[in-house]
Amino acid sequence: MEGMDLLTAPLDDLLAQASQLVRECADGRMLERATEHELARHLSAIGELSRLTEALLVDAVGEVSRRSEHGYRDDFMTTHLGCASVTELVETLTRVDSRTAARLHRAARAVRPDVSTTTGEILAPPFPDVREAMLDGVVGVDGILAIADPLQASSPRIAPAARRDAEAVVVAEARGTGADGAPPASAGILRVHAQAWALALDPDGAEPRERAALRARGITLGTATPTGVPLRGTLLPEVAAQLQTIFDAHLAPKVTFDDPTATYEDGEPFLTAEDTRTRAQKQHDALAAALTAAASSGLLPTIGGHAPTLVVSVTAEDLDTGRGYAHVQGCGQPVTVDLARHVACAGTIQRVTSRDDGRIIRIDTRDRVFNRYQRRAITLRDGGCIIPGCTVPASWCEIHHVTEHAAGGPTHTDNGVLLCWYHHRFLDRIGWQIRMNHGIPEVKAPGWWGTDHQWRPATTSPTRLHRTILKT
């Protein structure tokens, strides 16, 4: 039997009003013409309207869930509409991505009242105070989950009354009626409050959480694709914190030298380089540098008696011409010849000569790696990556042959400079030029950088910089 449609007409009216308002706002440039105080009020009101809309959405998702998770699958609403799950149905009908659909489903579980299957009685939701705040437009999906998730995770180990008390206190913070008189809290602050209460009420909960984290930890490398290798997984909190520390060290804001004393010997200012990488790309490059440093540290377990080594194979013809492909051992996709040159610049070249039928007839190995004594000397001279504006320290850098080894460049301190993984890997693309002038590295800015394209000495060595300043 079809039910009475009580919501279509009001929703159609709301949609028409909202559509008209959005169009009038855009056509009349109302937001652009508002003062700062007016714009702040508008943004706050739009946020409240969004939260009220989310309240309707959460309840609708909760009703879909009630009709799709009890009884026989053939009777589920999701089955009738051709979807495998509530999340899939929500994703299809609301045009959100799967993560947002899952969050809506989780929020609905926290605040949607259930109905007794035996008596038809409306049961209290798991978080009644959060539900009331949702219906009042105080919290949206972000706020619901910020409060419910931490308290829900601890619920098996704390008394229901204690959890309700904690919920009431955090909801008061959301309404701006908390004990400290603070204004209504954002979702991020609400999560902090809820986590604090969860920890206070569940002091022994860290151990179960740690056991769960240990079970969930893992990293998986996906199948190589032409655009890269996908990486997915879950890190333990302390491992993630260590990785974040590495990222922070690499991505710290670059130091600019506005002090007139921070110049080269000829009085010209220190150059800084434009970096167009996204933060995600910078974090990738920081991880690449960390892996390179770890592999060359001598502290990792050996493979066949040798340190973990990246093996890249390429034909001599392709290496000479710069065309064709190279292949990385353990990767199913071909890579560019530029990558082979990058690896070869700081590694060992082993030439294997074979006949057309595959028989190996000669092996020639040439070690072109700077030894630890040379590295120490170059570190003292250069300080870190020599590209101006780059703050990657020496311990994370690779040593670049300024004149390629294949072109006769020696593995000598007069031909080696420190470059971070990124600047070493993409030196030809980013436009910075490097040369050695009587054993001193000099750089020239690329064409897109300013108008000063002269050769300048480059160093971040504290000793050399200090001596330069004393000469001015």
Draw up the topology in text.
Blueprint: H1 8-27, H2 30-33, H3 36-66, H4 77-80, H5 86-94, H6 98-111, H7 128-135, H8 141-154, H9 160-175, H10 187-201, H11 206-216, E1 218-221, E2 231-234, H12 237-251, H13 279-295, E3 312-313, H14 316-321, E4 326-328, E5 334-335, H15 337-345, E6 348-354, E7 360-367, H16 372-382, E8 398-401, E9 416-419, H17 421-425, H18 427-430, E10 433-437, E11 440-444, E12 456-457, H19 462-471
Antiparallel strand pairs: 1-2, 3-4, 4-5, 6-7, 8-9, 10-11, 11-12
Helix pairs in contact: 3-6, 5-6, 6-8, 8-9, 8-10, 9-10, 12-13
Q: For the terminal residues, how far apart are their CA atoms?
A: 92 Å
The helix tally amounts to: 19
Helicity level, as a percent range?
40-55%
Number of domains: 3
Strand content range: 5-15%
Would you give an account of this structure?
Strand 10 and strand 11 form a beta hairpin. The strands form five sheets. This protein has a three-stranded antiparallel beta sheet, covered by helices on one side. A three-stranded antiparallel beta sheet has the order 10-11-12, with no helix packed on it. A two-stranded antiparallel sheet has the order 1-2. The radius of gyration is 31 Å and the shape is elongated. Helix 8 (141-154) packs antiparallel against helix 9 and helix 8 packs parallel to helix 10. Residues 254-273 have low confidence and may be disordered. It contains 19 helices and twelve strands. With 472 residues, it is mainly α. The chain has helices at 8-27, 30-33, 36-66, 77-80, 86-94, 98-111, 128-135, 141-154, 160-175, 187-201, 206-216, 237-251, 279-295, 316-321, 337-345, 372-382, 421-425, 427-430, 462-471; strands at 218-221, 231-234, 312-313, 326-328, 334-335, 348-354, 360-367, 398-401, 416-419, 433-437, 440-444, 456-457. It has three domains: 29-202, no CATH class; 247-303 and 370-471, no CATH class; 310-369, no CATH class.
